[in-house]
Design a protein that fits this description.
The protein has 345 residues and is an alpha/beta fold. Helices cover 39% and strands 13% of the residues. Helix 2 runs parallel beside helix 3, helix 3 packs parallel to helix 4 and helix 6 runs parallel beside helix 7.
């Protein structure tokens, strides 16, 4: 395909994707009894072992594709708009393309969070054919170290392949906090992402329970520069990460369990990756009544939460529906979090 024809095709695909995204936003504003986004885990195993991560192991088998299809079908029946596949490292799943295609067959937007290590030109083209809409790669540093091997040095050739072949939207997320040695690496990563035609964002690494760890002065300065460099998008309409960077709690209505759901490899629904155990209901048994209950349930972890995807999904509902139900007992919630940490160590 010529460069001109490829450019036309990419613009056409991007325009269609944008229409679907706008439809999703409109549906989310009109109705509150469906999930806007679901994160689903088809495999917990990962080929890396980043020091700050509690969301992987090195032994788990992939979830059978037919089981994944059943789960995706139930999410579609609940009215879910976006399904983002995460892990572990989802590209390790042998049937990933079929899982993505099933998301699209069910009329949902398909996203993928990957460390990027396993990308090849052929793998990217297969993701195109499967119908992937969005990919996010987090790059933690310029040179690999004992905290993270997700470095620009290692991944730059993968980014070049994505620039040449990907028909889906690619976002490169750089990070500060969480033991990252040189916060200025985030700026190098962000500039490289923009040079290759990708969007770039900046994230703040949370502690082991998804809670706030204030940035030092240097990291905060880098964070502000990255914000100024990034394109304006939905995630910049709120103050959430600004407060996190300054070490301030946020006053907001977390809609986890309702507008955002996290489905682990066992098929259980959780508030998010950092609050596994609540509500802990099998997805097959999750109903609109559960969604309505969690929509008005206050989450005790919300003020110091750093899980930005949950905040962004909840943002469209900040103005309505006060949360009148109390959260789980903090002591019990802490026990579950500790149990998860032991299981993932």
């Amino acid at each position: 395909m010529s460069k001109r024809n490829r450019g036309l095709r990419e613009r056409y695909i991007a325009a269609r994707r944008r229409v679907r995204e706008l439809t999703m936003i409109a549906k989310g504003i009109v109705s509150t009894d469906h999930p806007v986004m679901a994160h689903i885990v088809p495999i917990r195993r990962c080929n890396l072992s980043c020091a700050y991560c509690n969301e992987y192991d090195d032994v788990s088998k992939p979830i059978p594709v037919e089981v994944m299809k059943d789960r995706l079908g139930h999410l579609a029946r609940l009215g879910t708009n976006i399904v983002t596949i995460s892990g572990g490292e989802p590209i390790l799943h042998p049937d990933l393309d079929e899982i993505i295609a099933e998301i699209r067959r069910n009329g949902m937007i398909a996203g993928l969070i990957t460390n990027g290590y396993l990308l090849t030109a052929d793998r990217i083209r297969r993701l195109n054919r499967a119908g992937l809409d969005h990919m996010q790669i987090s790059i933690d540093n310029v040179m690999p170290d004992d905290v993270s091997k997700k470095s620009l040095k290692v991944l730059d050739k993968k980014l070049q392949l994505l620039s040449e072949h990907a028909e889906f939207h690619v976002n490169i997320n750089s990070v500060v906090g969480g033991g990252i040695r040189d916060p200025h690496d985030a700026l190098v990563v962000g500039r490289r992402a923009r040079a290759l035609g990708f969007t770039s964002t900046i994230g703040i690494i949370h502690d082991g329970t998804g809670q706030l760890k204030p940035l030092d002065l240097t990291a905060r300065e880098v964070f502000r520069k990255m914000q100024a460099m990034s394109r304006k998008n939905y995630s910049r309409f709120n103050w959430f990460q600004n407060n996190i960077a300054d070490g301030k709690p946020n006053d907001w209505k977390c809609r986890a369990g309702a507008r955002y759901v996290y489905i682990c490899e066992d098929g259980l629904v959780h508030y998010c990756s950092q609050q596994r155990g609540f509500p802990g209901t099998p997805l097959a048994q999750y109903t609109r009544d559960d969604i309505r209950r969690e929509f008005v349930t206050e989450k005790s972890c919300a003020p110091n939460c750093t899980v930005s995807c949950v905040h962004q999904v909840s943002y469209m509902d900040f103005w309505r529906a006060p949360q009148t139900l109390r959260p789980p007992v903090p002591q019990e919630q802490e026990k579950v979090v500790k149990l998860i940490q032991i299981q993932t160590d």
